[in-house]
Write a structure and sequence with these properties.
Blueprint (H helix, E strand, L loop, with lengths): L2 E6 L6 H11 L4 E7 L8 H11 L4 E5 L13 H12 L6 E4 L3 H8 L3 E4 L11 H6 L10 H7 L1 E6 L6 H11 L3 E3 L2 H8 L6 H18 L6 E5 L2 H12 L4 H8 L5 E5 L17 H14 L4 E4 L3 H18 L37
Helix pairs in contact: 9-10, 9-11, 10-11, 10-12
Length: 359
Amino acid sequence: MTRGLVLGKFMPPHAGHLFLVNFAQRMVDELSVVVGTLRSEPIPGELRHAWMRELVPAAQVLHLRDENPQDPAEHPDFWGIWRRSLTRILPRPVDLVFASEPYGERLAKELGARFIPVDLGREALPTSGTAIREGPLGQWRHLPACVRAFYARRISVFGPESTGKSTLSAALARRYGTVVVREYARTWLEHRQGECTIADMEIIARGQAAAEDALARAANRLLFCDTDPLATAIWSEALFGEVPAPVERLGQGRDYALTFLLDVDVPYVDDPVRYLPEQRAQFFERCAAQLGLAGRRTVALRGSWELRWRTACDAVDALLRSEGCTPPRPSPPPRPTLHPLAPHTDAGPSPAGDADVQP
């Protein structure tokens, strides 16, 4: 039986890593993949280990947490330290060491194994962990789905009821060729025939977060969210005068690259799961205050549908440019399906979208 080793930081895992591991798996009977991590590194080691276990389930994926030196210049016994760490964590001695970097030859010698170089010039899939960390959106095609979920820039469309959030978030998702996270409160409350109690708040917040995290894997650089758990916390306070602790935690513990706050200068449209038609202005002020306390980067959208659309697209385009990506060409606003400023019957945006962002 032939046994092999792939050692890496996988910070993050990318297509080049998967090529290396898949190559190695085809040359050995048993492959060990060692994920070596340090506490100080920018992506948690536990997360990288979990990613690799998901990505290469047929290999034995091991997590090496030893705080080892990262360069021979850092310690005179550099190679001895690594030999002892790997000998301790590996279940059995290895015959072959696979690597896309020259260090693999010395590592193989330390382990009494043979070095198998794989694409040392990084020509098959030209990327690196450093390049991805510095500009993940520009390296998108090299990222597996689980890593895309980590780097997707989440954009929340936020505000009082009946201000066009669902219409806008879906239209933006189509423009940028990505997916939209629908408002889970509507799904849950329609199921409940509009009845809403404080006990529903945690389910709504958890459902919104779960939908967002699940769809992040399908995102194309951007993930548009029709509201987010912070809005559930604001609703809980407005309706019941208190916020359950789990809802509070979900509302404060999530990261958004951009939040659009929609103003109430549009006509109200009644709906069985809308609750405070006379208090939309006050609710807007609550939203603005809480977003400020949360330190969110917020853009207020008001005025006509065309003005809201142009303001939103300008902000998203600026975000993409700051990440080294070229936005889609400017386009006129789509005719909204439900927006009270311009009612129109339309098939609506497809989930996958028909435009793409270029690196």
